[in-house]
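Reminder to self: tokens first, then the designed residues, so the page reads top to bottom the way the pipeline ran.
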């Protein structure tokens, strides 16, 4: 009983000591501004959840050889603490990966207008972080399994038939592996980036999330389209912000042949100059088609980004129609009927 009592005191004392050390480390993490410059914002607070258990576990592990338990109990306790440490270490490594990612991305703001470089960096860092997290989880599970003799024995048998097993796994998981490899290609080649404006499957939206095997597109009406990441390497799609965020908008107006094009062009200039949505780069009105009934006027204008371009198009379309209705109602599309009938006999 004295041995068990002494062992219990050692475990409790080491755990309490570990908790005190955790409180000290937690206090240091709260004072992170003392250790990092203002340009580099690091949220070390993410480490506190795993450290809350990791530090006491390390302290308990150090007293395991001093416990006066039976050999089997002591070995079981040591193995349990060892596995717990592996899990907590993996958890800490994942948190560190996220801390490094966030510290790096804090320097690139994607909320500014000219954010192509920032979106490129965000896309690469998020995909790379996802890959690192998967590798950490895989290594953590592997280290846990290696603590069991039976699993090690099975592992040796599996390695002996690795060739056949690799072929089977390759056929069974070829789509998953293909998407995984496609995710790496997306991070390097970057046909899409976070917050890119795309048209895919006839839907217009923004790239909201890029995971390892899928991409989430936020449609303009707030629906979400989930697409396999390999889609963007295998099928064509439109990317409106591939090289820059600015965009050209078009408005088509159909009028009668008698419309004064010059005055409509002057009105377009007046509308754009009075609009806060126009970026003052492109202002064009052209006759782009003529049919047997109407002519087609195309108004071309530029805006800083796609949402602004959409709003500007709607504004220009509405005001040009108001102008034609007010000044030249006879120039709106009309149908002419000519009759050559004789008078009454």
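Designed residues (345 positions):
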């Amino acid at each position: 009983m004295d041995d068990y009592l002494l062992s219990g005191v050692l475990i409790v004392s080491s755990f309490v000591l570990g908790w005190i050390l955790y409180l000290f480390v937690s206090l240091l993490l709260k004072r992170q501004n003392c250790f990092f410059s203002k340009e580099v914002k690091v949220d070390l607070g993410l480490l506190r959840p795993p450290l809350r258990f990791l530090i006491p576990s390390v302290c308990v592990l150090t007293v395991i050889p001093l416990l006066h338990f039976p050999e089997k109990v002591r070995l079981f306790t040591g193995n349990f603490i060892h596995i717990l440490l592996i899990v907590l270490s993996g958890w800490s490594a994942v948190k560190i990966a996220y801390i490094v990612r966030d510290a790096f991305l804090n320097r690139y703001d994607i909320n500014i207008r000219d954010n192509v470089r920032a979106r490129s960096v965000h896309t690469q860092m998020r995909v790379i972080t996802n890959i690192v997290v998967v590798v950490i989880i895989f290594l953590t599970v592997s280290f846990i399994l290696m603590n069991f003799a039976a699993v090690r024995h099975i592992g040796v048998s599996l390695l002996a038939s690795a060739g056949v097993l690799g072929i089977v796994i390759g056929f069974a998981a070829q789509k998953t592996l293909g998407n995984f490899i496609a995710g790496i290609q997306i991070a390097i080649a970057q046909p899409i980036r976070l917050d890119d404006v795309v048209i895919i499957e006839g839907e217009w939206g923004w790239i909201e999330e890029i995971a390892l095997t899928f991409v989430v597109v936020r449609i303009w009406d707030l629906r979400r389209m989930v697409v396999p990441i390999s889609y963007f390497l295998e099928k064509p799609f439109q990317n409106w912000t591939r090289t820059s965020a600015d965009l050209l908008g078009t408005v088509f107006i159909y009028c009668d042949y008698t419309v004064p094009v010059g005055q409509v062009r002057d009105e377009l200039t007046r509308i754009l100059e009075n609009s806060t949505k126009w970026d003052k780069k492109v202002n064009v009105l052209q006759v782009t088609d003529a049919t047997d009934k109407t002519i087609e006027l195309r108004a071309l204008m530029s805006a800083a980004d796609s949402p602004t371009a959409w709003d500007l198009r709607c504004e220009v379309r509405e005001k040009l129609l108001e102008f034609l209705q007010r000044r030249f109602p006879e120039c709106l599309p009309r149908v002419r009927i000519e009759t050559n009938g004789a008078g009454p006999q």
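Confidence is low (pLDDT under 50) at residues 158-165.
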